[in-house]
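Q: Entry one of two.
A:
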Amino acid sequence: MAKDPAILFYTGDFLNGCIDLTLEERGQYITLLCLQHQKGHLSEKTIRLSVGSVSADVLKKFIQDNEGNFFNKRMEEEIEKRLQFIQTRIDNGLKGGRPKKANGKANAKPNGKPNAKLIENENENRIEYKDIVERYHSLCPEMNKVAALNEQRKGFINSRVEEYGIEKVLEVLKIAGESEFLNGKNDKSWKADFEWIMRPTNFIKVMEGKYSNNENKRVDGYYE
């Protein structure tokens, strides 16, 4: 059987997920995603030959398997969903296709809805942005509220969830909410906000405890 030449590609999710990448890095990212779809998990040699010196921010979007090869988890899931979809079509074909009504039309489900197994574009991995914002409001009650979720903010959420997972994102929000420094107890009475926390450099600093209350030293660069 020939390699499947296609896969569902969620353009909005891609743009949101790489909003903090340069155009060159986005080119590297999409190239590696396409290579993974066609060739499977990627060795370091394949990556170097394909995109040259890969950006560290791009490489963070891939994880390594037991053999040290790189793959993007979301792409892996979409490949599997596509294979399952194709298999349902093959199975239905071997059975003579979907049952027909007397008028020759395919039978629907009893509730009138199509079979969920045949809906290829169902995105089970969609991030509930509003839920994350609501958790921010509850975990960081002294910080400014999020009035609107623009594409940039959605992109930051996508990137952090893809890199660290939803539980780590919520953990970082909790750490930020408990930080006296990030809640205005500093020499400028400055407070962090949601977008500041979700930016890649700031997120790592909070995660590593650089703004925790037991840190006695002043942390420079908190306005970046």
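Q: Entry two of two.
A:
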Amino acid sequence: MMKKRWGMICLWMIMAALVLPGCGGKAEEAKAPATPAVTAPSAAAPSQAPGTEAPAPVPGKPAVAEVPVKPPEAGIIAVARFTSGQTVNGAPAGWVLESKSGTPFVRIEKDANAFCLHLSSDSESSFGIRKEIKVNIREYPFLNWRWKVTRLPKGGDVRDTGKDDQALQIYIAFPATGWPEKLNTPVVGYIWDNEAPRGWMGSSPHTGAGMLRYVVVRNKTDRLGQWFTEKRNIYQDYQTLFKDVKDGQPLGPTQGVQFYINSQHTRSAAESYICEVYFSKS
């Protein structure tokens, strides 16, 4: 048990110890999803049942809008489907705030029928939120999400340690492949970069971060302020990114997920939104 706990601690040490700045698949704009499996369905408010009344608001306490939690859907494992705008200790319920530098700006805001994570960083900021989640990507090989960026860090480039800033980063951590764990934990990062070309795949340029590997999903050529829906085959991405490690096969289910933003290297600012993140079978 102690070894397992130490393993989980080390799993996230690679994320916390580094300055964290995403292969194939075609992304779609959020307004034109091809199938329900591509765009995460938003929860819709049900009509009030006959004979029931809405609870009265607590005097002196502002009402908080909520989206009802939907029953689990076949073939889907939800990662981030926020049901209200509330945060606990600076992060959504079930998540942990992780700040490397600067002052974190984390909000949950309503967009249409969904609540989305809103991150904003300044010239000193590097932070994100994380949570543990176990998913067998052989069974659920697709990672789906919806995101938009309203500001990119000036000159940010994942390939350059001195400019390694991104408006939004999605990290999926897997079981360590050796010892020490913090140097041998495979992490797949899907990112919205600035200068790196879309489709670029490679390792982090930071010393000791060779197991942190990326796919650039979007960059400065994509329209700011517009929602995009993405669908990635993370199992295939893992096989490509880690073909030199254990024959490109993960040693178990995912260990955790993290959303991150940083702009401290470029001394600029960044802003982004993400929601409706889930794994799916197809």
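A: Comment on entry two: Confidence is low (pLDDT under 50) at residues 1-69. The domain at 2-35+68-280 is CATH 2.60.120.260 (Jelly Rolls).
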